[in-house]
Amino acid sequence: MTLTLTVPADAAGTRLDRFLAEPLGSRARAQRLIDSERVRVDGVARSKRYAIKPGEGIVIDDLDPVAEAPAGEAPFAVPYEDAYLLIIDKPAGVVVHPARGHRSGTLAQALAGVGAGGEDPWRAGIVHRLDRHTSGLLVVAKSEEVHRALKALLAARDLRREYLALVEGRPSARSGTIDAPIGRDRRERLLMSIDTDQGRAARTHFEIEQALSRSTLLRVALETGRTHQIRVHMAAIGHPVCGDAQYGTAGAYGLERQFLHATQLAFSHPVTGAPIDVVSPLPEDLERALERARDDFA
Element (H or E) spanning 148, and its range? Predict the structure, then answer.
């Protein structure tokens, strides 16, 4: 579904997200669509702060992708579930939300009727996301109230997300923090980058889990959650994730995807207050690649 609007004279100078808040139902939804570059102003993706001009044409694409496609099957495991939320262990290859090119077979569709919450009902209560080729843990709410509470934990950085990443080379320090805004690359618009005109704050913490001869297994914690954040940040410091075809070198250690796994979620339950701490072991393809990297070290 596509919505086309023309900026009236009396809206001149209004921020783009504020102008779109009414036709899209909320400013938050407008901001999400703008940030995902599904909004074009005279054919150009603009920031949410962009001051619109009279006569400009605004096109919003893919407003309701689920409505155009039947739900599909998406495999996943459930290492934790209660009456309020569940934690999903997503295999690599599964797309989280429907989008152009992935109209069915998504995790959100598989969770329809189970997860709930969020301004877009087709998101099925999913609180955060993983790239298609990244495996591991996601938390899903079963109600609007729990979804809001989990989003608040995420915003307050009280929902800990840890990843295991095998990267090329070895960082110069055993631990560190990468603090660099991320946005669309200035030249390659399909890539995210720290070389951007519209960067959003992004911070990634890492520490060495195991040093090998030509690669390093890192434990990575996200403080923010930008698109491709770990992959972009590691490439920016000269240590791209092994097997990453977009930001590094494909095929390392026999990998068919990037070596990136969301291995741990830890937070206080938003209803009961009980500590939740779920760990997902490395899947078989990443274990095999790690063994090859260790053999290379030997």
Answer: helix 144-155
Q: Which two tokens stand for residue 161?
A: 């997300």
Which numeric CATH code is attached to 71-155? 3.30.2350.10
Domain 3-62 matches domain 71-155 at the CATH topology level:
no
| Pick among 3.10.290.10, 3.90.1150.10, 3.30.420.10, 3.40.50.1000: CATH of 3-62 | 3.10.290.10
**pTM for this structure?**
0.75
Span 162-262+287-297 CATH architecture: 2-Layer Sandwich (3.30)
* Alpha carbons 48 and 230: distance in angstroms, whole number: 24
What confidence score (pLDDT) does residue 152 get? 93
- Measured CA to CA, the distance from residue 207 to residue 176 in angstroms comes to 7
Distance CA 45, CA 102 (A): 21
89 given a catalytic annotation: no
pLDDT at 161: 95
Catalytic residue among 17, 89, 120, 131: 131
User: So what's the pLDDT on residue 293?
Assistant: 93
